[in-house]
Design brief:
With 409 residues, the chain is of the alpha+beta class. It has a domain of 204 residues: 2-Layer Sandwich (Antithrombin, Chain I, domain 2). The chain contains nine helices and 14 strands. Strands 1, 5, 6, 7, 8, 9, 13 and 14 form an eight-stranded antiparallel beta sheet that branches. It has a six-stranded mixed beta sheet with strand order 3-2-4-12-11-10, with helices on both faces. The longest helix is centred in the first third of the chain and has 22 residues.
Length: 409
């Protein structure tokens, strides 16, 4: 198979591992994933939700950050199963699910997609787990727990929230299901807490085309404030695909057999100016252009190594997207979970990513806290400049992770 030769200079931050060059050509044909019409809709709406949540988080911060749209939408869909009235309507709209799609159809589409994602590529290690931890004595409705078990394969456990062992158990679950990359998601359990809905997502894969460690060197990285600094930069002649727009350049680097890839978007000007027009339509345009390439042509790529952890409470962002009543004790309708007066006290996400010459390791845990309403919840090319990165499954265009790098140091 001939490969188009393109020479570009790029500097990026990503996370996944890649194959070493050897005599036997690697299998670069992605596994076909079969989707129903409903599953396709769920992916599209989940991506739109993820892009909106990311831009609302990134536009007000200047630090390195990463979110997992797949993890957040999974945890919030679990919550959706327990909502009623306007709380249900608002959350469903926030997640962008079509009006005519029932919760049973959403659950079925999610279940079918996840099972196929987990087995898409044997060279990529991917794990997704769900859990519900509730306070001993708190009466959770049996149909809700049955749905969580049947449709989400959730680990369900009652705990003594007043005992230090509860915190150890919850954090231990997060650590175990992210292979130690996210060891802690809670530092305390409030006296009003009755339940935690959780999703953990883990990803580790080899680059389809490996970077040579001996070529890694310090190279300038130009910040949006006009300053610059030398950063540890990888270099290699690797397989890539490209897309260009009026205000960005984008590159896609594959993992394993190419089901999973990393997409790097480098704004022509600043990240802030790029976010002004960054929507799901922009994402669809970029990935459509990338998919127009029949193969990954060879290019000389420069990109920074990076590794960081991130934590973010998402209450304000979700409220601005329409999920309002769930956070208000006097308005929340979580009658599908319990008859007790409860509300969502917080939605937070912890993420981790490590990008180096071999590939990428990424993890996320989304935690939804549910409390009694007695008290309010907590308030909660050359890639040589700040850029956006994302990890997707390209045959379905499932957006798994998206983030920005403002300083790869």
């Amino acid at each position: 198979m001939k490969k188009r030769v393109l020479f570009v200079t790029l500097v990026v931050g990503v996370a996944l591992f890649s194959c070493k060059k050897h005599n036997i050509s690697p299998n670069l044909t992605p596994k076909e994933i079969t989707l129903t019409a409903k599953s396709t809709q769920v992916i599209t709406t989940s991506n739109a939700f993820g892009i909106d949540l990311f831009t609302k988080t990134a536009e007000k911060g200047s630090e390195n950050l990463m979110l997992s749209p797949l993890s957040a939408s999974t945890a919030l869909t679990m919550l959706l199963n327990g909502c009623g009235g306007s709380t249900y309507t608002q959350l469903k709209a926030t997640l962008n699910y079509p009006d005519d799609m029932t919760i049973s159809e959403v659950n079925e589409a999610y279940k079918g997609l996840v099972s196929q994602l987990l087995s898409a590529d044997p060279k990529v290690k991917m794990a997704l787990a769900n859990a519900i931890f509730y306070r001993n004595g708190f009466e959770v409705k049996a149909p809700f727990l049955s749905t969580m078990d049947r449709e989400f394969n959730a680990h369900i456990q009652g705990l003594d929230f007043g005992s230090p062992s509860a915190l150890t158990t919850i954090n231990g679950w997060a650590s175990s299901n992210t292979f130690g990359k996210i060891p802690e998601v809670l530092t305390e359990i409030s006296g009003d807490a009755v339940m935690f809905l959780m999703n953990a997502l883990y990803f580790k894969g080899d680059w389809s085309y490996q970077f040579d460690k001996s070529l890694t060197h310090d190279s300038p990285f130009y910040f949006d404030n006009g300053t610059a600094a030398n950063v540890n930069t990888m270099q290699g002649e690797v397989g890539a695909r490209f897309a260009y727009g009026d205000n960005y350049s984008a590159i896609e680097l594959p993992y394993g057999r190419t089901n999973f890839t990393m997409v790097l978007i480098v704004p022509s000007e600043t990240l802030a100016s790029f976010y002004n027009g960054f929507t799901n339509e922009t994402w669809e345009s970029i990935t459509s252009s990338l998919d127009g390439y029949p193969e990954f042509g060879t290019a000389e790529i420069y990109m920074p190594k990076f590794k960081f952890s991130y934590e973010k409470y998402l209450n304000d962002q979700l409220k601005s997207m329409g999920m309002v009543d769930a956070f208000e004790g006097s308005l929340a309708n979580l009658s599908g979970i319990a008859d007790a007066p409860i509300y969502v006290s917080f939605v937070k996400q912890n993420t981790f990513i490590d990008v180096n010459e071999e590939g990428t390791e990424a993890a996320a845990v989304t935690t939804i806290g549910i409390d009694y309403t007695a008290s309010p919840g907590p308030k909660i090319f050359k890639v040589d400049k700040p850029f956006v990165f994302a990890i997707r499954e390209r045959t379905t265009n499932t957006l798994m992770f998206i983030g920005q790098i403002t300083d790869p140091r």
